[in-house]
């Protein structure tokens, strides 16, 4: 959602974030780049993105998929970021889906692409399974 100096958020806000077709829900994904952004800047950028989505899709429920904790040595930073995202979701009436517990630290590299940041197919499958289970648990009906 954010990068240093908010450059990515500023850039994406210049373009429509979601389709013109009415959506029942919108999914945002918190990432590891968010760790590099100061809390106040991340919070402001997060709120801007949510405001933009609500302007484009006022009836859509917004879900936030929290970052997976794939870097055990940054556990404290990721925990703080997850807590901040969950707090912002509660404050803004969004649905937060925690994924920080999904990838065992002993095997974390096996879930990542060669860039050691983004999930490979197995990592994506693990995240997708959590997302699908949470959407079902929270009563979101799939649309065709």
Question: How do the helices and strands line up, and which of them pair or pack?
Answer:
Blueprint lengths: L6 H6 L12 E5 L9 H18 L4 E5 L9 H18 L2 E3 L23 H17 L7
Parallel strand pairs: 1-2, 2-3
Helix pairs in contact: 2-3
Question: Can you walk through the features of this model?
Answer:
Helix content is 41%, strand content 9%. The two termini are 28 Å apart. The protein has helices at 7-12, 39-56, 75-92, 121-137; strands spanning 25-29, 61-65, 95-97.
Largest sheet: 3 strands, parallel
User: What Rg is obtained from the alpha carbons, in whole angstroms?
Assistant: 15 Å
Structural class, please?
mainly alpha
Distance between the termini: 28 Å
- Provide the residue-averaged pLDDT: 80
Helix content: 40-55%
* Approximate strand percentage: 5-15%
* 3D shape: globular
Number of helices: 4
């Amino acid at each position: 959602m954010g990068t240093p100096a908010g450059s990515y958020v500023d850039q994406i806000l210049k373009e429509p974030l979601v389709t013109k077709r009415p959506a029942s829900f919108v999914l945002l994904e918190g990432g590891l780049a968010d760790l590099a952004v100061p809390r106040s800047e991340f919070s402001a950028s997060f709120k801007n993105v949510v405001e933009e989505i609500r302007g484009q899709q006022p009836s859509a429920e917004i879900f936030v998929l929290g970052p997976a904790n794939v870097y055990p040595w940054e556990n404290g930073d990721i925990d703080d970021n997850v807590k901040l995202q969950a707090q912002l979701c509660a404050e803004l009436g969004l649905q937060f889906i925690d994924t920080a517990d999904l990838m065992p630290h002993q095997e974390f590299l096996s879930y990542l692409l060669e860039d050691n940041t983004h999930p490979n197919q197995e990592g994506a499958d693990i995240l997708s399974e959590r997302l699908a289970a949470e959407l079902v648990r929270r009563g979101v009906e799939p649309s065709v």
